[in-house]
Amino acid sequence: MEKTSHQGLLDIFYEIRGLLIQNGVPLTEDWPIEEIDQPVALEHNCLGRCFVTHKGRTKIIHAVEMQIKSLDGIVYSIEGLIATLLHEFAHCITPPHPNDHSDLFYASFEKILRVAETLEIFILPTKANKFNFHGLRRLDAIDLKVAPPTIVGSSPRYNPKAVSSDPNTRWTVISPTGVSKL
Fold first, then answer.
1. CA distance 17 to 122
2. pLDDT tens-digit readout, 116-139
3. What SS3 state is found at 93?
C-alpha cells in the first residue's frame, strides 16, 4: 500500500525508527516525530530539526520535526525526507559536542545509514567510500529541496518504483544562489 498522505509519511518515519531500534541503533521511542505545522524557510538544505537539551553529559531528546512540504505546498521526495530523518536520528544518538556536525556525529550517521541500507530503508548511490566522513558531508551539502531524488539515494522499501540513475552519470546541482553542489 502506498502511503502518500502527511500522516502516512509520519507513520513511515515511526516505522523507520522502530526498524532501526530493532536492528541495534540506540534510539528511543519516548519522543515524537512531528510535521512542522507551517512550512518555514529553513536553511537551504534543511528539511528537519532535532530538539534536544543537555543535562551534563546526557542528551534529552524532545522531538524530531520534519518539513514534509515546501512553502508552495509541494510534498518533498520520500528519498529526501528519509535522508533528513536519518540525519536527525544521528543527532539523537550522538553524544553532546560543541560542534553539532563533528566527527562523532558523522560516525553516528554512518552507523544509521549502514543499518538503513541493510534494511533497504535508504541506500546511498554506489560509489567508493560512500560512508566516509567526506562522503557524508557531501550528502549533507545536497540541497534536498531541489536535488533529483536519484542523486540523494533510493528507498527500495518505501519507493520501490523509483528508478535509480546510471552510476556513470555525474550530476551537478546549482542552488538558487548559483552555488555548484556535487
1. 13
2. 999 999 999 988 889 999 889 988
3. helix
